[in-house]
Amino acid sequence: MKRAIIGTVGVPGRYGGFETLAENLVHYHTARIDKGELTVYCSAGAYPARPAKFSGATLRYSRLRANGLQSVLYDIVTALDAVRRGDDVLLVLGVSGAVVLPLIRLIAPRRRIVTNIDGIEWKREKWQGIAKRFLRWSEKLAVRWSHVVVADNHAIAEYVRDSYGTEVETIAYGGDHAVAEAIGTPDAALLADLPAAYTLALCRIEPENNVAMILEAFADTEEPLVFVGNWSNSHFGRDLKQRYCSYANITLLDPVYDPATLQAIRAGARAYAHGHSAGGTNPSLVEMMHFGVPVHAFDCSFNRHTTENEANYFSTAQKLAQLAGQPLPKQGMKMLEIAKRNYTWQIVCKRYFELMDANTRS
After folding, report:
1. Parts of the chain with a pLDDT under 70
2. Less crowded by CB within 10 Å, the N or C end of the chain?
3. Which domains does the chain have, with CATH numbers?
């Protein structure tokens, strides 16, 4: 069996949900007795060294970028290369290049296509006009032409069934890697500047993640907030940073990529504020659930499914401000129990390989 993973920046993973998934699938593949072959397609610009192998998987590189407008071509070119090389199964992560799937079904009917459609990408606020319409069309193509459609959240699965009448496999993300022993030494200087106890927020700084709402809520309290994000990447982020950086109880950090430092920041939190309003099962949420702290999550179907309705939920800054100071140790233990039951990479990777290795064709 020859399998290819398409649609990610590549491995090793760097701070992205699909990249973390791909990396853990590689490790799971390496540990299997009956391995077969596994290839991961990578964006060359993200990996200057460009090794040929990673933990038992073959790496192939494209000069195209895996994100932005080039992601469409990146996915198309790498998918066709996998077909040309004779890969039996294509695991496609995302719908950007779904326009190529009908062609693959025509020229290589025996190839099996398993597609994770991500989090209803076209509904995100950052996409407008032609881009939004293209992503919705791509989603439709992915659902129509894949042998198996994967959703990472029951709410997304229900959306696909209702919208397209198609059955969906639901597989979430693992988060236990976040609490595994990290290699290296944490940044002591950065950690020394953090409060003794704080609520943590960590996300891309985008409107749909309700960043402004979280900051507004804590600005009205004396509760410490540590917020990690890419503040400098947009006018939206720079404006928020300028507006809230002077609050004594709010610490705004740029992205932290070092695993040991990130783990220490998470371990020091007394609660987690999760503002995502789109995207299904968000990796940052399931990762934080493994730390056993209370979760304050934006009130939407995705987050309720992920936390099994056992978290605290907010839809306004005022509600989050009320939740911020509440001690909820039992809820933290409930989050950990849910995470261990549903969101470990052993469970997730086993399901993906079962789908990839199935003998059925449609």
Report:
1. 15, 122-123, 125-126, 359-362
2. C
3. 2-174+344-357 (3.40.50.2000), 181-342 (3.40.50.2000)
